Amino acid sequence: MLNLTYRKLRWIIAGWLTLSTILNLIDRQTLSILAPLLRDKFHLSPQDYANIVSAFLISYAVMYTVGGRFVDWIGERVGMAACILWWSICAMLTSLAQGFWSLGIIRFLLGIGEPGNYPAALRATTRWFPKAERGLPIALFSSGSAVGNIIAPPMIAGLMLLWGWRAAFIIPGALGLVWLVVWLWIYRLPEHLPGISQEELAWIRNENSQGVASASASGPQRWGDLLKDRNVLALVLCRLVSDPVWYFYSCGVCVPCQEGNTHVCEKLRVLGVDTDGGFAEYIQVASEQLVEVPDTVSDEQAALVEPVSVAMHTVRRSSFRPGDTALVLGGGPIGNLIAQMLRASGARAVMVSEVKPFRGALAERLGFATVNPAQEDLREALQRCVGEPFADHVFEVTGVSAAYRDAVEACKVRGEIVFVGLPKTPPEVDIQRVVFKEIQTSSSRVYARQDFRAAIALLERRAVDVVPLITDQLPLKDAEGAFQKMLGSDTSLKILLAP
Description:
Blueprint: H1 4-33, H2 35-42, H3 46-74, H4 76-93, H5 100-113, H6 117-128, H7 135-163, H8 165-186, H9 198-210, H10 213-218, H11 223-228, H12 230-242, H13 255-258, H14 299-302, H15 305-317, E1 325-329, H16 333-344, E2 349-353, H17 357-365, E3 369-371, H18 378-386, E4 391-396, H19 401-410, E5 411-419, H20 431-436, E6 440-443, H21 449-460, E7 470-475, H22 479-488, E8 494-498
Parallel strand pairs: 1-2, 1-4, 2-3, 4-5, 5-6, 7-8
Helix pairs in contact: 1-4, 1-6, 1-7, 1-8, 3-4, 3-5, 3-6, 4-5, 4-6, 4-8, 6-7, 7-8, 15-16, 15-21
Protein backbone atom coordinates (compact mmCIF):
# COMPACT_ATOMS: atom_id res chain seq x y z
CA MET A 1 0.00 0.00 0.00
CA LEU A 2 1.31 3.43 -0.90
CA ASN A 3 2.66 5.68 1.83
CA LEU A 4 -0.02 8.22 2.85
CA THR A 5 2.41 11.16 2.64
CA TYR A 6 3.41 10.14 -0.87
CA ARG A 7 -0.22 9.69 -1.90
CA LYS A 8 -1.14 13.15 -0.65
CA LEU A 9 1.90 15.01 -1.89
CA ARG A 10 1.77 13.72 -5.45
CA TRP A 11 -1.82 14.95 -5.85
CA ILE A 12 -0.97 18.25 -4.20
CA ILE A 13 1.79 18.61 -6.79
CA ALA A 14 -0.65 17.69 -9.58
CA GLY A 15 -3.11 20.28 -8.31
CA TRP A 16 -0.41 22.92 -8.04
CA LEU A 17 0.68 22.22 -11.61
CA THR A 18 -2.95 22.68 -12.69
CA LEU A 19 -2.99 26.05 -10.97
CA SER A 20 0.15 27.02 -12.89
CA THR A 21 -1.56 26.44 -16.24
CA ILE A 22 -4.59 28.42 -15.03
CA LEU A 23 -2.35 31.37 -14.12
CA ASN A 24 -0.51 30.92 -17.42
CA LEU A 25 -3.72 31.44 -19.40
CA ILE A 26 -4.91 34.33 -17.23
CA ASP A 27 -1.65 36.22 -17.74
CA ARG A 28 -1.80 35.48 -21.46
CA GLN A 29 -5.44 36.56 -21.88
CA THR A 30 -5.31 39.77 -19.87
CA LEU A 31 -4.24 41.88 -22.83
CA SER A 32 -6.94 40.54 -25.14
CA ILE A 33 -9.65 41.14 -22.54
CA LEU A 34 -8.49 44.73 -22.02
CA ALA A 35 -7.79 45.27 -25.75
CA PRO A 36 -10.72 47.67 -26.45
CA LEU A 37 -9.70 49.90 -23.55
CA LEU A 38 -5.97 49.83 -24.34
CA ARG A 39 -6.52 50.42 -28.04
CA ASP A 40 -8.37 53.63 -27.22
CA LYS A 41 -5.93 54.67 -24.51
CA PHE A 42 -2.79 54.15 -26.59
CA HIS A 43 -4.40 54.98 -29.97
CA LEU A 44 -3.55 51.56 -31.41
CA SER A 45 -4.77 50.66 -34.89
CA PRO A 46 -5.99 47.11 -35.61
CA GLN A 47 -2.65 46.46 -37.31
CA ASP A 48 -0.76 47.76 -34.25
CA TYR A 49 -2.68 45.39 -32.01
CA ALA A 50 -2.15 42.47 -34.39
CA ASN A 51 1.61 43.18 -34.40
CA ILE A 52 1.71 43.20 -30.60
CA VAL A 53 -0.03 39.81 -30.51
CA SER A 54 2.33 38.50 -33.19
CA ALA A 55 5.33 39.57 -31.12
CA PHE A 56 4.08 37.31 -28.32
CA LEU A 57 3.32 34.42 -30.66
CA ILE A 58 6.77 34.55 -32.30
CA SER A 59 8.69 34.25 -29.05
CA TYR A 60 6.13 31.77 -27.70
CA ALA A 61 6.57 29.47 -30.72
CA VAL A 62 10.36 29.56 -30.57
CA MET A 63 10.53 29.04 -26.81
CA TYR A 64 8.25 26.01 -26.89
CA THR A 65 11.23 24.02 -28.13
CA VAL A 66 13.93 25.98 -26.31
CA GLY A 67 11.93 25.88 -23.09
CA GLY A 68 11.71 22.11 -23.24
CA ARG A 69 15.46 21.80 -23.66
CA PHE A 70 15.97 24.30 -20.81
CA VAL A 71 13.80 22.23 -18.47
CA ASP A 72 15.65 19.05 -19.44
CA TRP A 73 18.95 20.75 -18.64
CA ILE A 74 18.08 22.48 -15.37
CA GLY A 75 15.35 20.20 -14.02
CA GLU A 76 11.64 20.72 -13.52
CA ARG A 77 11.82 22.29 -10.06
CA VAL A 78 14.13 25.16 -11.00
CA GLY A 79 12.92 25.23 -14.60
CA MET A 80 9.29 25.73 -13.59
CA ALA A 81 10.31 28.30 -11.00
CA ALA A 82 12.33 30.26 -13.57
CA CYS A 83 9.47 30.27 -16.09
CA ILE A 84 6.86 31.36 -13.54
CA LEU A 85 9.16 34.07 -12.19
CA TRP A 86 9.87 35.37 -15.70
CA TRP A 87 6.31 35.52 -16.95
CA SER A 88 4.91 36.87 -13.66
CA ILE A 89 7.37 39.77 -13.74
CA CYS A 90 6.58 40.40 -17.42
CA ALA A 91 2.85 40.39 -16.67
CA MET A 92 3.36 42.96 -13.94
CA LEU A 93 5.64 45.04 -16.18
CA THR A 94 2.79 45.34 -18.68
CA SER A 95 1.15 47.73 -16.21
CA LEU A 96 3.97 50.19 -16.99
CA ALA A 97 3.36 50.14 -20.76
CA GLN A 98 2.98 53.54 -22.42
CA GLY A 99 2.17 52.62 -26.01
CA PHE A 100 2.78 50.36 -28.98
CA TRP A 101 6.50 49.73 -28.58
CA SER A 102 6.49 49.08 -24.86
CA LEU A 103 3.50 46.76 -25.15
CA GLY A 104 5.10 44.88 -28.02
CA ILE A 105 8.43 44.43 -26.24
CA ILE A 106 6.84 43.28 -22.99
CA ARG A 107 4.55 40.83 -24.78
CA PHE A 108 7.56 39.45 -26.66
CA LEU A 109 9.32 38.91 -23.32
CA LEU A 110 6.19 37.30 -21.87
CA GLY A 111 6.20 34.80 -24.73
CA ILE A 112 9.75 33.74 -23.78
CA GLY A 113 8.72 32.52 -20.33
CA GLU A 114 5.27 31.02 -20.79
CA PRO A 115 5.90 27.87 -22.89
CA GLY A 116 8.26 26.27 -20.38
CA ASN A 117 5.30 25.63 -18.09
CA TYR A 118 4.08 22.65 -20.10
CA PRO A 119 7.28 20.58 -20.47
CA ALA A 120 8.11 21.24 -16.81
CA ALA A 121 4.65 20.11 -15.69
CA LEU A 122 4.90 16.99 -17.85
CA ARG A 123 8.36 16.18 -16.51
CA ALA A 124 7.19 16.62 -12.90
CA THR A 125 4.26 14.29 -13.56
CA THR A 126 6.51 11.56 -14.90
CA ARG A 127 8.70 11.91 -11.80
CA TRP A 128 5.84 11.39 -9.36
CA PHE A 129 3.45 9.08 -11.18
CA PRO A 130 4.17 5.70 -12.72
CA LYS A 131 3.26 5.30 -16.37
CA ALA A 132 0.00 3.47 -15.63
CA GLU A 133 -1.33 6.39 -13.53
CA ARG A 134 -0.21 9.47 -15.50
CA GLY A 135 -3.38 9.98 -17.53
CA LEU A 136 -5.38 11.79 -14.85
CA PRO A 137 -2.66 14.19 -13.59
CA ILE A 138 -1.71 15.11 -17.16
CA ALA A 139 -5.38 15.69 -17.96
CA LEU A 140 -5.67 17.87 -14.86
CA PHE A 141 -2.84 20.27 -15.65
CA SER A 142 -3.81 20.31 -19.32
CA SER A 143 -7.37 21.30 -18.39
CA GLY A 144 -5.97 24.33 -16.59
CA SER A 145 -5.85 26.20 -19.91
CA ALA A 146 -9.61 25.77 -20.37
CA VAL A 147 -10.28 26.75 -16.75
CA GLY A 148 -8.06 29.80 -17.18
CA ASN A 149 -10.04 30.87 -20.23
CA ILE A 150 -13.24 30.64 -18.20
CA ILE A 151 -11.90 32.50 -15.16
CA ALA A 152 -9.95 35.22 -16.97
CA PRO A 153 -12.78 37.40 -18.40
CA PRO A 154 -14.74 38.00 -15.17
CA MET A 155 -11.57 38.19 -13.07
CA ILE A 156 -9.77 40.70 -15.29
CA ALA A 157 -12.91 42.77 -15.85
CA GLY A 158 -13.54 42.88 -12.11
CA LEU A 159 -9.99 43.94 -11.29
CA MET A 160 -10.15 46.64 -13.94
CA LEU A 161 -13.44 48.02 -12.64
CA LEU A 162 -12.24 47.98 -9.02
CA TRP A 163 -8.69 49.26 -9.33
CA GLY A 164 -8.00 50.16 -12.95
CA TRP A 165 -6.40 48.40 -15.91
CA ARG A 166 -2.89 48.41 -14.44
CA ALA A 167 -4.07 46.35 -11.45
CA ALA A 168 -5.47 43.78 -13.89
CA PHE A 169 -1.87 43.04 -14.92
CA ILE A 170 -0.22 43.43 -11.51
CA ILE A 171 -2.46 41.17 -9.41
CA PRO A 172 -2.35 38.05 -11.64
CA GLY A 173 1.43 38.50 -11.91
CA ALA A 174 1.66 38.74 -8.12
CA LEU A 175 -0.37 35.54 -7.79
CA GLY A 176 2.30 33.86 -9.91
CA LEU A 177 4.96 34.91 -7.40
CA VAL A 178 2.88 33.44 -4.57
CA TRP A 179 2.56 30.22 -6.58
CA LEU A 180 6.36 30.21 -7.01
CA VAL A 181 7.04 30.38 -3.25
CA VAL A 182 4.74 27.44 -2.53
CA TRP A 183 6.21 25.46 -5.44
CA LEU A 184 9.76 25.80 -4.16
CA TRP A 185 8.53 24.78 -0.70
CA ILE A 186 6.58 21.65 -1.66
CA TYR A 187 8.37 20.25 -4.71
CA ARG A 188 11.25 17.83 -4.49
CA LEU A 189 12.15 14.58 -6.18
CA PRO A 190 10.38 11.50 -4.76
CA GLU A 191 13.67 10.02 -3.47
CA HIS A 192 14.09 13.10 -1.25
CA LEU A 193 10.67 12.65 0.37
CA PRO A 194 10.98 11.53 4.00
CA GLY A 195 9.13 8.31 4.63
CA ILE A 196 8.91 7.04 1.06
CA SER A 197 9.81 3.37 0.91
CA GLN A 198 12.35 1.73 -1.37
CA GLU A 199 9.51 -0.40 -2.76
CA GLU A 200 7.61 2.70 -3.82
CA LEU A 201 10.70 4.26 -5.35
CA ALA A 202 11.44 1.08 -7.25
CA TRP A 203 7.85 0.96 -8.48
CA ILE A 204 8.10 4.49 -9.93
CA ARG A 205 11.63 4.09 -11.29
CA ASN A 206 11.07 0.71 -12.91
CA GLU A 207 8.06 1.88 -14.89
CA ASN A 208 9.68 5.19 -15.78
CA SER A 209 12.86 3.48 -16.94
CA GLN A 210 11.18 0.97 -19.25
CA GLY A 211 10.55 3.47 -22.04
CA VAL A 212 13.89 5.26 -21.78
CA ALA A 213 16.42 2.50 -21.16
CA SER A 214 17.69 2.43 -24.71
CA ALA A 215 17.88 6.23 -24.90
CA SER A 216 19.80 6.42 -21.64
CA ALA A 217 22.32 3.91 -22.89
CA SER A 218 23.15 6.01 -25.91
CA GLY A 219 22.99 9.39 -24.20
CA PRO A 220 20.75 12.39 -24.96
CA GLN A 221 19.06 12.26 -28.35
CA ARG A 222 20.03 14.79 -31.00
CA TRP A 223 17.62 16.83 -33.12
CA GLY A 224 18.25 14.66 -36.16
CA ASP A 225 17.53 11.50 -34.19
CA LEU A 226 14.26 12.91 -32.87
CA LEU A 227 13.06 13.92 -36.32
CA LYS A 228 13.89 10.43 -37.63
CA ASP A 229 11.62 8.90 -35.00
CA ARG A 230 8.35 8.10 -36.76
CA ASN A 231 6.28 8.73 -33.63
CA VAL A 232 7.80 12.17 -33.08
CA LEU A 233 7.50 13.04 -36.75
CA ALA A 234 3.84 12.01 -36.83
CA LEU A 235 3.02 14.21 -33.83
CA VAL A 236 4.88 17.20 -35.25
CA LEU A 237 3.23 16.91 -38.67
CA CYS A 238 -0.23 16.51 -37.14
CA ARG A 239 0.22 19.67 -35.10
CA LEU A 240 1.68 21.49 -38.10
CA VAL A 241 -1.39 20.67 -40.17
CA SER A 242 -4.08 20.99 -37.52
CA ASP A 243 -3.02 24.03 -35.48
CA PRO A 244 -3.45 26.57 -38.33
CA VAL A 245 -7.10 25.45 -38.62
CA TRP A 246 -7.84 27.49 -35.49
CA TYR A 247 -6.97 30.61 -37.52
CA PHE A 248 -8.50 29.42 -40.79
CA TYR A 249 -11.79 31.29 -40.74
CA SER A 250 -10.78 34.07 -38.37
CA CYS A 251 -7.47 35.34 -37.05
CA GLY A 252 -8.35 35.02 -33.35
CA VAL A 253 -6.36 38.11 -32.37
CA CYS A 254 -8.21 41.17 -33.72
CA VAL A 255 -10.67 43.02 -31.49
CA PRO A 256 -13.83 41.50 -33.08
CA CYS A 257 -12.40 38.01 -32.57
CA GLN A 258 -11.40 38.74 -29.00
CA GLU A 259 -14.93 40.01 -28.32
CA GLY A 260 -16.43 36.80 -29.68
CA ASN A 261 -17.48 38.18 -33.08
CA THR A 262 -15.31 35.97 -35.27
CA HIS A 263 -17.77 36.23 -38.16
CA VAL A 264 -16.71 39.86 -38.65
CA CYS A 265 -12.99 39.21 -38.16
CA GLU A 266 -10.81 41.92 -39.67
CA LYS A 267 -9.03 39.20 -41.66
CA LEU A 268 -12.00 36.90 -42.31
CA ARG A 269 -11.40 34.28 -45.02
CA VAL A 270 -14.46 32.22 -45.91
CA LEU A 271 -13.92 28.68 -47.13
CA GLY A 272 -14.95 28.34 -50.76
CA VAL A 273 -14.98 32.12 -51.24
CA ASP A 274 -11.67 33.58 -50.08
CA THR A 275 -9.87 30.24 -49.84
CA ASP A 276 -10.04 27.12 -52.00
CA GLY A 277 -11.76 23.94 -50.88
CA GLY A 278 -15.49 24.51 -51.35
CA PHE A 279 -15.76 21.59 -53.78
CA ALA A 280 -13.01 19.40 -52.35
CA GLU A 281 -13.85 15.76 -51.67
CA TYR A 282 -12.34 16.06 -48.20
CA ILE A 283 -11.33 19.11 -46.21
CA GLN A 284 -9.95 19.59 -42.71
CA VAL A 285 -11.73 21.96 -40.35
CA ALA A 286 -11.77 22.41 -36.59
CA SER A 287 -14.42 20.30 -34.87
CA GLU A 288 -15.82 23.47 -33.27
CA GLN A 289 -16.83 24.64 -36.75
CA LEU A 290 -19.05 21.62 -37.37
CA VAL A 291 -22.76 21.61 -36.59
CA GLU A 292 -24.73 18.38 -36.53
CA VAL A 293 -27.70 18.10 -38.89
CA PRO A 294 -30.50 15.81 -37.64
CA ASP A 295 -31.90 13.03 -39.84
CA THR A 296 -35.23 14.88 -40.01
CA VAL A 297 -33.56 17.52 -42.21
CA SER A 298 -33.05 16.28 -45.78
CA ASP A 299 -29.77 16.61 -47.64
CA GLU A 300 -31.37 19.19 -49.94
CA GLN A 301 -32.47 21.27 -46.97
CA ALA A 302 -29.09 20.87 -45.28
CA ALA A 303 -27.39 22.24 -48.39
CA LEU A 304 -29.25 25.53 -47.81
CA VAL A 305 -28.54 25.89 -44.10
CA GLU A 306 -25.93 28.55 -44.94
CA PRO A 307 -28.32 31.05 -46.66
CA VAL A 308 -30.95 30.36 -44.01
CA SER A 309 -28.30 31.28 -41.41
CA VAL A 310 -27.64 34.55 -43.26
CA ALA A 311 -31.35 35.38 -43.08
CA MET A 312 -31.52 34.37 -39.43
CA HIS A 313 -28.55 36.58 -38.56
CA THR A 314 -30.08 39.50 -40.46
CA VAL A 315 -33.38 39.36 -38.59
CA ARG A 316 -31.61 38.89 -35.26
CA ARG A 317 -29.45 41.94 -35.97
CA SER A 318 -32.53 44.08 -36.61
CA SER A 319 -34.86 45.61 -34.03
CA PHE A 320 -37.83 43.70 -35.46
CA ARG A 321 -40.60 42.74 -33.04
CA PRO A 322 -43.71 40.58 -33.60
CA GLY A 323 -46.52 42.71 -35.04
CA ASP A 324 -44.18 44.98 -37.02
CA THR A 325 -44.39 45.46 -40.79
CA ALA A 326 -41.52 44.87 -43.17
CA LEU A 327 -40.47 45.54 -46.75
CA VAL A 328 -37.77 43.34 -48.29
CA LEU A 329 -36.02 44.88 -51.28
CA GLY A 330 -34.85 41.94 -53.37
CA GLY A 331 -36.54 38.59 -53.94
CA GLY A 332 -33.45 36.46 -54.48
CA PRO A 333 -32.63 33.52 -52.18
CA ILE A 334 -31.50 35.70 -49.24
CA GLY A 335 -34.35 38.20 -49.61
CA ASN A 336 -36.89 35.41 -49.92
CA LEU A 337 -35.55 33.69 -46.80
CA ILE A 338 -35.52 36.96 -44.84
CA ALA A 339 -39.19 37.42 -45.75
CA GLN A 340 -39.95 33.87 -44.60
CA MET A 341 -38.00 34.46 -41.39
CA LEU A 342 -39.94 37.65 -40.67
CA ARG A 343 -43.26 35.91 -41.23
CA ALA A 344 -42.23 33.02 -38.99
CA SER A 345 -41.22 35.57 -36.33
CA GLY A 346 -44.69 37.16 -36.22
CA ALA A 347 -44.63 40.02 -38.72
CA ARG A 348 -48.04 41.62 -39.31
CA ALA A 349 -47.29 42.08 -43.00
CA VAL A 350 -44.30 41.45 -45.26
CA MET A 351 -43.93 42.76 -48.80
CA VAL A 352 -41.21 41.70 -51.27
CA SER A 353 -39.97 44.17 -53.89
CA GLU A 354 -38.50 42.48 -56.97
CA VAL A 355 -38.02 43.50 -60.62
CA LYS A 356 -37.42 40.00 -62.02
CA PRO A 357 -40.75 38.26 -62.80
CA PHE A 358 -39.57 34.74 -61.87
CA ARG A 359 -38.43 35.78 -58.40
CA GLY A 360 -41.54 37.88 -57.80
CA ALA A 361 -43.80 35.00 -58.86
CA LEU A 362 -41.97 32.65 -56.47
CA ALA A 363 -42.51 35.06 -53.57
CA GLU A 364 -46.21 35.21 -54.46
CA ARG A 365 -46.46 31.40 -54.52
CA LEU A 366 -45.03 31.40 -51.00
CA GLY A 367 -47.80 33.77 -49.91
CA PHE A 368 -46.09 37.18 -49.94
CA ALA A 369 -47.43 40.41 -51.34
CA THR A 370 -45.06 41.64 -54.04
CA VAL A 371 -44.32 44.78 -56.02
CA ASN A 372 -42.24 45.47 -59.09
CA PRO A 373 -40.77 48.92 -58.36
CA ALA A 374 -40.09 49.43 -62.07
CA GLN A 375 -43.83 49.21 -62.77
CA GLU A 376 -45.58 50.40 -59.61
CA ASP A 377 -44.97 53.11 -57.04
CA LEU A 378 -43.50 51.49 -53.94
CA ARG A 379 -45.44 53.59 -51.45
CA GLU A 380 -48.75 52.92 -53.20
CA ALA A 381 -48.03 49.21 -53.11
CA LEU A 382 -47.28 49.45 -49.40
CA GLN A 383 -50.55 51.27 -48.84
CA ARG A 384 -52.32 48.41 -50.60
CA CYS A 385 -50.51 45.70 -48.63
CA VAL A 386 -49.79 47.19 -45.22
CA GLY A 387 -52.47 49.85 -44.92
CA GLU A 388 -49.97 52.72 -44.85
CA PRO A 389 -47.34 53.91 -47.33
CA PHE A 390 -44.42 53.00 -45.04
CA ALA A 391 -42.92 49.93 -43.39
CA ASP A 392 -41.50 49.68 -39.87
CA HIS A 393 -38.44 47.86 -41.21
CA VAL A 394 -36.86 47.90 -44.67
CA PHE A 395 -34.33 45.19 -45.54
CA GLU A 396 -32.11 46.18 -48.47
CA VAL A 397 -30.82 42.93 -50.00
CA THR A 398 -29.99 43.90 -53.61
CA GLY A 399 -26.93 46.15 -53.47
CA VAL A 400 -28.48 48.16 -56.33
CA SER A 401 -28.21 51.97 -56.06
CA ALA A 402 -31.90 52.61 -56.77
CA ALA A 403 -32.88 50.32 -53.91
CA TYR A 404 -31.11 52.55 -51.39
CA ARG A 405 -33.27 55.50 -52.45
CA ASP A 406 -36.35 53.29 -52.23
CA ALA A 407 -35.35 52.16 -48.75
CA VAL A 408 -35.20 55.72 -47.40
CA GLU A 409 -38.52 56.69 -49.00
CA ALA A 410 -40.36 53.55 -47.89
CA CYS A 411 -39.10 53.50 -44.30
CA LYS A 412 -41.42 54.81 -41.65
CA VAL A 413 -40.47 57.82 -39.53
CA ARG A 414 -38.30 56.41 -36.72
CA GLY A 415 -38.26 53.10 -38.54
CA GLU A 416 -35.24 50.98 -39.41
CA ILE A 417 -33.27 50.15 -42.54
CA VAL A 418 -31.12 47.00 -42.45
CA PHE A 419 -28.36 46.89 -45.07
CA VAL A 420 -27.57 43.38 -46.32
CA GLY A 421 -26.75 43.74 -50.03
CA LEU A 422 -23.19 44.49 -51.15
CA PRO A 423 -23.08 47.28 -53.77
CA LYS A 424 -20.30 47.17 -56.36
CA THR A 425 -19.86 50.95 -56.08
CA PRO A 426 -20.69 53.27 -53.16
CA PRO A 427 -24.40 54.15 -53.50
CA GLU A 428 -25.91 57.60 -53.05
CA VAL A 429 -27.99 57.84 -49.89
CA ASP A 430 -30.01 60.92 -48.89
CA ILE A 431 -28.56 61.29 -45.40
CA GLN A 432 -30.56 64.47 -44.78
CA ARG A 433 -33.76 62.50 -45.36
CA VAL A 434 -32.50 59.77 -43.03
CA VAL A 435 -31.83 62.35 -40.32
CA PHE A 436 -35.14 64.19 -40.76
CA LYS A 437 -37.05 60.89 -40.46
CA GLU A 438 -34.86 59.73 -37.54
CA ILE A 439 -34.32 56.43 -39.30
CA GLN A 440 -32.20 53.88 -37.50
CA THR A 441 -29.77 51.89 -39.63
CA SER A 442 -28.10 48.57 -39.03
CA SER A 443 -26.28 46.01 -41.14
CA SER A 444 -25.68 42.29 -41.25
CA ARG A 445 -22.77 40.20 -42.48
CA VAL A 446 -22.78 36.42 -42.89
CA TYR A 447 -23.71 34.66 -39.61
CA ALA A 448 -22.54 33.48 -36.21
CA ARG A 449 -22.47 29.91 -34.93
CA GLN A 450 -25.75 30.28 -33.05
CA ASP A 451 -27.45 31.36 -36.28
CA PHE A 452 -26.42 28.06 -37.90
CA ARG A 453 -27.98 26.09 -35.05
CA ALA A 454 -31.14 28.20 -35.14
CA ALA A 455 -31.40 27.77 -38.93
CA ILE A 456 -31.26 23.98 -38.58
CA ALA A 457 -33.96 24.11 -35.90
CA LEU A 458 -36.22 26.16 -38.21
CA LEU A 459 -35.72 23.71 -41.06
CA GLU A 460 -36.47 20.81 -38.74
CA ARG A 461 -39.78 22.45 -37.72
CA ARG A 462 -40.56 23.39 -41.34
CA ALA A 463 -40.84 27.05 -40.28
CA VAL A 464 -39.10 28.07 -43.51
CA ASP A 465 -39.38 26.36 -46.89
CA VAL A 466 -36.15 26.17 -48.88
CA VAL A 467 -37.19 23.56 -51.43
CA PRO A 468 -38.80 26.09 -53.84
CA LEU A 469 -35.49 27.95 -53.97
CA ILE A 470 -33.80 24.88 -55.48
CA THR A 471 -34.40 25.43 -59.17
CA ASP A 472 -31.93 22.85 -60.50
CA GLN A 473 -30.07 19.73 -59.38
CA LEU A 474 -27.11 18.65 -61.50
CA PRO A 475 -24.32 16.07 -61.10
CA LEU A 476 -21.00 17.33 -59.81
CA LYS A 477 -19.34 16.63 -63.15
CA ASP A 478 -21.55 19.36 -64.68
CA ALA A 479 -20.37 21.99 -62.19
CA GLU A 480 -18.98 24.29 -64.88
CA GLY A 481 -22.26 24.19 -66.77
CA ALA A 482 -24.13 24.93 -63.55
CA PHE A 483 -22.15 28.13 -63.06
CA GLN A 484 -22.84 29.16 -66.65
CA LYS A 485 -26.53 28.46 -66.18
CA MET A 486 -26.59 30.56 -63.04
CA LEU A 487 -24.91 33.48 -64.80
CA GLY A 488 -27.09 33.37 -67.92
CA SER A 489 -30.53 32.65 -66.53
CA ASP A 490 -33.14 34.69 -64.68
CA THR A 491 -34.95 31.52 -63.63
CA SER A 492 -32.19 29.96 -61.51
CA LEU A 493 -31.88 30.61 -57.78
CA LYS A 494 -30.06 27.73 -56.07
CA ILE A 495 -28.44 24.95 -58.08
CA LEU A 496 -27.46 21.85 -56.13
CA LEU A 497 -24.54 19.71 -57.28
CA ALA A 498 -24.89 16.04 -56.38
CA PRO A 499 -21.76 13.83 -56.17
